[in-house]
Structures are given as structure tokens and as C-alpha cells.
Amino acid sequence: MQVVGLTNEQEVIVIDAARPFRINEYLVIEDPALGSPKGEVVETQSFNRFLDFNLDKGIVGPEIFRDLRASSGYDISQHEVHVAKVRLLERVQTPVKPGTAVRLPSFDEVAGYLVKGNPDKAMILGVIHATDNLAPGMPPQLHNRARLLEDGQVKDQNGVPFVFDPRAMQQYPHVGIFGGSGSGKSFGLRVFLEELMKLRIPTLVLDPHFELTFTETPAGCPPGYRDVKFEERFKAFQVGQEVGVNFAHLTTRDLCRLLEAASGLSEGMTNAVEALHKSNDSYVSFSTRVDTLIAALEAGEKGSQGRMRDPGGSGSEREVGADQVRVLNEAKGIPLSSVKGIQWRLNRLFRAGLFTNDIKPIETALRNGQLAVVQGPIWMLNVFASYVIGTLYRQRREYKDAQFRRETAPYFPPIVVVTDEAHNFAPKAFDAPAKSIIKEIAQEGRKYGAFLILATQRPTLLDETITAQLNTKCVFRTVRASDIATIKEETDLTQEEARRLPFLRSGDSFVSSAIFGRTVPVRIRMAKTTTPHTENPFDELGEQVESEADQFLEVVGPVLVKYGKVNDAQLIDVTRDLAKAGHSFTVDALRNRLDALAEAGLVEKQTFLGMSDYRLKT
Amino acid sequence: MADDWVNQLQALNGRVRNLISDAVLGDKVQRRNTMQQAGRFRSLRRLTGQELENVLGGGVLVGVDGSINTFGGQFPYYVDLLRALAKPSRGDAVAVKTLHCPIPPEDEDDQETAIRNDNDVRQRMLAELEVQAAIEAVDRLQPKVILMDGPLVRFDMRAKDSFFILCEKVTRSRIALLGCIENIESKVVGAVLGDLAPPEWRQRYDRELLWDLLEYGEVLEIRTPAKGLPRPGASEAEKKKAVPICTWFMRSSLDPAVVGVDMLQSQLDLSGALIDYLFTLSPADGRGIPIWLDLVDREVRLTDVELEAYTELLDPQVRRVFRSKRDARFF
Fold first, then answer.
1. Does one domain contain both A345 and A331?
2. Which of A355, A399, B150, B318 is the most exposed place for a label (fewest CB within 10 A)?
3. Under a CB-based contact definition with an 8 Å cutoff, are residues A272 and A393 in contact?
4. CATH no. for residue A383?
5. Is A71–B283 a contact, with Cβ atoms under 8 angstroms apart?
6. Domain span holding position A411
7. Whether A71 and B55 lie within 8 Å, measured CB to CB
């Protein structure tokens, strides 16, 4: 191998006659004057000067060369020349000397570029591409740390593991995981979470897809690979069931956001909330006040006063009137429509169960070093996220601030906040309930030990300030041109790498990280857990239809037996019989289902002159 | 002016068509019948599998080609770097090189003659080099087959003594020596037929007589030598040194023009048996000669960069003497 052609301080062309280059492999350029710099292959080509491409000339079919070889032993491929464009890992002072010899490195020579952090205390996310020839030189602690899934087959680790040390986030905080559907992004996120659990790092996960649970083991998982009891290290909570918002802890601004998330708030409604909400309000006290105000506004001022003073009314009636008058005074000038809007939104949140619980279980899980997975529909998660992240972050910040001031405050652990579909929580150009808190953590979270891992398939739609703060970006296959442009802008991916983005295999990613100072191509390791949604919905559909048919047959079977044969005119009688047995069908519905059974071959159907007979198949 | 060209070119159409027209030469059937008196038509066969392995019996195939790379331009200010290459299918190639420069020019008043003479010198030198490379290949590599690029008679004419040595060596070692001719310029058919040829065929080139006559994958085997024969009235010594050469024609590509294969008359059976093999190695849409010669041809030529590198060995002043003004053209 040697350097040929024009060289410069960052890039050289290397040729080799013996062996084709592999993309992303490392090479040592033995120019002693420059301290033998290392480089990474970024483009590969092979060439045979006897097989050049020339449209003017005829094409020699492969059989001629095959025949030549069979008869005379001549092998045309001996003229093959392999060419690689190599980018130096560190810029050098002067261009590399052409003609410089090039060789493959040993592991020790490039270890500093590949492994940052102690593999026992860090996250092992996958295997670095094209490092298999370095693997034999690795220290024992780097061996057998990950398995790979290739074309459905489990493979042993075949290279240097990609080690991501969360400690480094202190300096270079936050992670972005980008990739289209089917790119392996969800698996990547899962692997990140498994590693966080392994290290017992308190983590809050927002899971709009209800898929981030860690009890299931993937099919084909080799024994012993699942080395952590994940089921003990995570807790899943559904918003509105296990967890909710403690209404008493809400600030007026929080409440506005919550109501906003239920459905957009007009300015009048915001004013109304500000006028009506009081600190330490419970849900009951607040909603009663809203109801009272509506009643008062509907009755009018005079009506309310009249009720208060009604001599014929009972004591409680007069009290209600007094309340109405008081509320009316507090909320002067608020139109009825705004208050009704608030009532509707409040009811929606209440019905969703948002106010029935609090976030204590999440806090407990985090304090135990567990992964707290919060599940819910995306609109609800959005509401809840702003509240839960805000509350947790505040506790952590209060603890750290107290520490800075040398005061004491209750301990709250550092946290990692993880979300899929991050562009829904922190969208570019418009507001979302959780956006400001996510932005705040993005900008100053590292000071307090709060970090973000944001996954999205649409990096272009993610708030730019936040994107800019993601110091490590893990990029999977991306096809959309606008997203590729964003990724190019926001990472140090080279032109060549960006060109490869639409063609990456599922599970292959480029990790562009300030920690590494460059882009590392990584095959994400096989996950040790799997999503509960493994059944194909269409299989499920088929099974459902079959089981329904069976059930219906069980119901209608005895009746058909009784009648022997049922014609159209008798269907009405059959529905009556079925109704007696507790199954109600209309005649049309019954006919449809019988037809379906006939089609499935379970019932015999004969049609004569437009009239149909049904009988049970014997 | 353009009209002149139009008329002249259109007239040319007729003249050329006339050369190869059935009306003049006879139709295909007639022509084939006549030619059968000179040789035999046969269909070629592509070798496969075991036949391919057997054809050389594990031996080596050698291709020989030469090249002249010229630096400079205006006579006599140029340098020829001549090189001949004998490339074996296995093992290291034999390369023979020399240099030619007509400075100082021979004592010839007429510039035209001087140029023509010098061109002869070059061609003789090149032929000599190629034969030398072939001889060395015979000695060093003991090949089974040697393929020369171009007609064998070229070597007989331009490097007579060496070629005679080569022929003796290959005959003794039973090495097949063949020449592959992509552009045939011969009049073999007419010569072999002699008086049997129709009057219209006299002095006609093989290229014209055989135009589109053979089917793709067909060969015309002519066992009578037409080249390398001693001149009428040659001395005994000359007769002894004569190397009679037979030429076979085959249509080994889809192109209607045939290619020629030269063989020594003394080796006719040995070489003739290889004709199917040569056909097998010739790409159907190529120029009709075995691919091996394409590869050798490609390798024997100096690239511009190599030529430049060699001429760097000349003093800058000397180099400037050779440097043609043409090289400084803008377009």
C-alpha cells in the first residue's frame, strides 16, 4: 500500500494491488516527518486497467477471460488495483509525502481514537465498522461485549466495541438519535436504554408508542446474553392510571399549559385561568369555582344576587348565591364562552385521569436508579411531560443550587430524560407544552446533571436550539432530503457519509460525537429485550376473524340444528330464538354472518330463485 | 468546395462497392466454389471445459508485440524508444528495448528518401526486437504457443536472420509459432489459385475477395504457402533460409472483414490444430484476434507519463532540441 497522486494535509489517495480496501477501515501512513498519521478510508474503488470502461470499444465478455484462465492459467484479476480515499484523523502540518508506505494499524495504535472510556463503566452500544482486523489485539475486557444481528442471524462481536461513556456527557451533553422508520432507530433507542439500566442511571422515558418495556426477550437471543435483570430495573407507568398530575402543585402557568394541551387556549381563556386559579387550589376547588362562575354568568349578576338574598331560599341556596356573587366579582369581565372553554378542557383532562394521581411513583423509581417509562397518547404525554420533567428538573436544580450555596436540600439524583418522537415535544417554529422545559435542559441541564436523549425521525422538525445542543448524534438511515440536509448541517458527517445515509442497512449508524471529535460508523448491537408489539396486526386480524366465526357458530349452531334448514323467511324467527339466548342480531346482520360462514365452508348455502337456504354442514 | 466533396464521395461509393460486388467477383456460391480449389472451409468450434485445459496441457501461452514511442517530431529530431514484449500467461514477461535516433542523419541529399529510409530502419529494428523477445521467451519460458502480433512474413522480410533462428528453435521444440493479422493486406488467395483464379481476381486483395464470404465462426484453411517462398532464381543459400508461410483466414468476430493467421508450413499440423483455440479466445464483438494480443498490446505501449519520465534523462537543452513546436499548440 502506498500514497499516490495529489496529497494534502487532510486527505490522501492510497493504492494497493493485493487487497481491496474496506470503507471506514483505519490505516497508518508511515510518513515519519509527520509522525505517521492515522487515517480512515472514506471511499473505496477497484480498477483493472485491462477492463476499463470505454463506450467506443467493444465489451469483452467474462467467458473469454474464463477460457483464457482455464487454458493458460492467466488470471486477469492480477492486474487489479484497489484505490482508497483516506481522510486523516488529525490534520497534519504539511501534505503527506507521495509514495509514502501505508499499512494496517495494530489495535494499540488506534485505540485512543476508538475506545473512549472504561468499558466496564460505560455504555456498550455496538461494534465499530471495519475494525475486525483490530479485534485480536484488543485487551480482554473489550472482547465479547456485544452481539450483532445480521440478516436475522445472531453473530458474535466482530470488531472493536463502541463504548459511550455517559460521564463524558458532563462536558458534551445530550444525545440525538435520528433515523427514518425501519432504520433501526427504535432498536438503537432500546439499546441506549438497556445500557442506562445496566449502569443504574435514573432515567425518565416518554413512550408514546407503548413499546419501551423490557420484559420480553427477543427470539433467538443466545443464552447468557441477557445479563441484566431488566424487568427489575424499569417501571412503566400510564398517565392517568398509575401516575398523574398533583393539581395542588400546579402553578397557574402549568395549568394553562395543561389546558392548552387538551386543546388550544384563546387569550380570553388564558386570562380566565389566571383570574380563577389560586395557589394550592385542588382540582375540586378549582373546578367548583369554574362551575360556579358559569352558573353565575348564566344567571347574571342580578340573578346571583337575588339568589343570595332570596328570602324564600334555603340556607345553602343562599350560600351558593353568595359564592356566585363572590366569583363574579373576582372574575370581572370574563366572557362566559371562555369559562366554558376552560370547563370543557378541564373535564377532558379529568376524564383522562390526569388529576387522580401524582408523580410520586416516578420519583421513587428514579431515586432507586430505575428507568421510569411513562406511557400515554401523545397529546397527553405532551401535557404530562411539561409537568413531570419540570418538576423533576426543579428538584434536581434546587438540590444542586443549595449545594452551590452550601445549604442543605433534599437529595435528588441526576436524570436522563429520553423521548421518542422528540419533534412532537419540542417542535421547531411553534410551541408545545414541553418545549420550553426541554429547551432549558438542553441549554443548561449539564450544569445540574440533567441530560437529554432525543429520538426522532424528523430532525428537521426538531427545535434548532435544541438540535444544536445535542453533542452526540446517532444517525441511522435517512431518506428525506431535507432531513439529510439538516443532519449534514448539524453533524460533522462528510459528503461521502451523507451520500451513504439513504442506503444504510437497518441497524447501521453514524455516530457523530464531540466526544470522539469525528464520526464513527457503528453497527448497533443486538438488543437484549424486545418490544411487546411483535405480533403482526394482520395476523392478529386473521385470528380475530376466525375466532369470531367460531364463536358465532357456537351460538347459531344449535338453532340451525333445531330448524334443520333455514330459509330467508325464517331468519326473523332465528333472530328471535337467538335473542332469547341473549344474542341480538338484526335479520341483515344474521344473513351476513351466515353468508360469511358459508364462504368459510362451515355452513351449507343453497340459492334457488333468489331465495337462500342455510343448513349446518354435517 | 463542399459540393466537390459531396460529388467525389458519392462517386467513391460506387467505386468501392464495385470492388466487392457480386457482379464483379461472382456471387457467394461461385466464390466459395472457386476458393475451395485453394483451401477448405470449415466451421470453428469454441472449446470448453476439459478441451481448454488440454489445449496447452498446462503449458504457457506467449504473446509478442512491439511498440515505438516517439519523443520529438521533425525529422531528424526525434528519439524512438522501441520495446518488444513477450508476455507469458504465467511468469515474468520478456522485454527487449532499444533506442533509435536519426541524428546525425545519413548522407542523403533527398530529404524524402532520407525519411523513407529512416522509417525502414525503425521498422527493421522493431521487427528485430520482437523476434529477439520471442527467442528469449523460447529459451526462458519454453512456451507451448507463441502468438506474434502481425504477419510472420514481416519478420521474414525485416529481420531475416533472427527470424530464421527463431523458426529453427520453435520447430525443434515443437512450439507453435503463429502470427495474427487483424488488417490483412495480402493477396494470398489469388497467389495460391494462380491460373485457376478468374481474371477479375488477379491482383485483388484477400480483404476484398473474402469480404462477407465467411460466416461468423468459419475458417478457410489454405495449406499451400504463399509467403516466405524463395525468389525465383534464388541461390541455394537463399533457398535454404527460406521459411514458407501459410495463411488461414477466419471470421472470428461479427465484423464482415476476416482476420488472417500465419503459420509456418513446417508446423502446419501443430499450428492448424490451434485455430479453434484462437477462435475461442477472440471476443465476438472485438477485432477478431485473441484477447491475449490485446492485453500484450496494451502493456507494451509506453504511457505518456512513462515516456515523459524517460525523456527526463536527457539534458534540458537537448530535450529542447527535440521538443516539437506542435507540443506547444493551444488546440
1. yes
2. B318
3. no
4. 3.40.50.300
5. no
6. 174-244+357-481+493-524
7. yes
A414 and A305 within one domain: no
Residue A281 and residue A206 in one domain: no
A550 touches chain B (CB under 8 A): no
Question: Is A147 part of any domain?
Answer: no
Residues A201, A415: Cα–Cα separation, whole Å: 7
Lookup: cell for A257: 399549559
CB contact under 8 A, B61 and A64: no
In a domain, A529, yes or no: no
CA dihedral B251, B252, B255, B257 (to 10 degrees): -40
Whether B53 sits inside 8 A of A70 (CB atoms) is yes
Give the mutation candidate from B48, B295, B299, B300 for the A interface (greatest A CB count, under 10 A). Answer: B295
Count of other CB atoms within 10 angstroms of residue A139: 11
A73 lies within 8 A of chain B by CB: yes
Interface membership of A406 toward B (CB under 8 Å):
no
Q: Are A372 and A475 contained in the same domain?
A: yes
Q: Tell me whether residues B60 and A65 touch, CB distance under 8 A.
A: no
- A402, A471: one domain: yes
Q: How do the domains of chain B map onto residue ranges? A: 23-328
Q: Scanning every residue of chain A, which has its alpha carbon at the shortest distance from the alpha carbon of B143?
A: A72
Q: What is the pLDDT tens value at each position of chain B, 331 positions in all?
A: 567 888 899 889 988 888 888 888 888 898 899 999 989 999 999 998 888 889 888 899 999 999 999 888 788 888 999 999 999 998 899 999 999 998 877 777 788 888 888 999 999 999 999 999 999 999 999 999 999 999 999 999 999 999 999 999 999 999 999 999 999 989 999 889 888 888 888 888 999 899 889 999 999 999 999 998 888 888 888 888 899 999 999 999 888 889 999 999 999 999 989 999 999 999 888 888 898 998 899 889 888 888 888 888 888 888 888 876 666 676 6
Q: Which helix (H) or strand (E) holds B79?
A: strand B78-88
Q: What is the per-residue pLDDT across A384-429, written as a single tens digit (0 to 9) for each?
A: 888 899 889 999 999 999 988 988 888 999 999 999 889 989 998 8
Which residues does B contribute to its contact with A (CB < 8 Å)? 46-47, 49, 52-53, 55-56, 58-61, 89-90, 277, 280-287, 291-292, 294-295, 298
3-state secondary structure A454-515: EEECCHHHECHHHHHHCCEEEECCCCCHHHHHHHHHHCCCCHHHHHHHHHCCCCEEEEEECC
- Asked if A18 reaches chain B (Cβ–Cβ under 8 Å), the answer is no
Q: Is the domain of A182 the same as that of A89?
A: no
Is residue A295 situated within a structural domain?
A: yes
To the nearest whole angstrom, how far is the Cα of A14 from the nearest Cα of chain B? 19
Percentage of residues of chain A with pLDDT beyond 90 = 32
Q: Which residue has the cell 509456418?
A: B264
b/e string for A338-367 if b means 16 or more Cβ within 10 A? bbbbbeebbebbbebbbbebbbeebbebbe
Mutate to test the interface with A, among B46, B51, B52, B146 (most CBs of A within 10 A): B52
Q: Are residues A362 and A474 in the same domain?
A: yes
Same domain (yes/no): A439, A457:
yes
Among all chains, which residue has been given the C-alpha cell 387538551? Answer: A262
Q: Which residues of B touch A70 (CB under 8 A)?
A: 49, 52-53
Does A52 reach chain B within 8 Å, measured CB to CB?
A: no
Question: How many distinct structural domains can be found in chain A?
Answer: 4
Contact assessment for residue A156 and residue A171, using Cβ atoms and an 8 Å cutoff: no
Name the residue of chain A whose CA is nearest to B274's CA. Answer: A71
Contact A409, A362 (CB under 8 A): no
The shortest C-alpha distance from B179 to chain A (Å) reads 18
Q: Among A212-221, A454-463, A607-616, which is the least confidently predicted range?
A: A607-616
In a domain, A139, yes or no: no
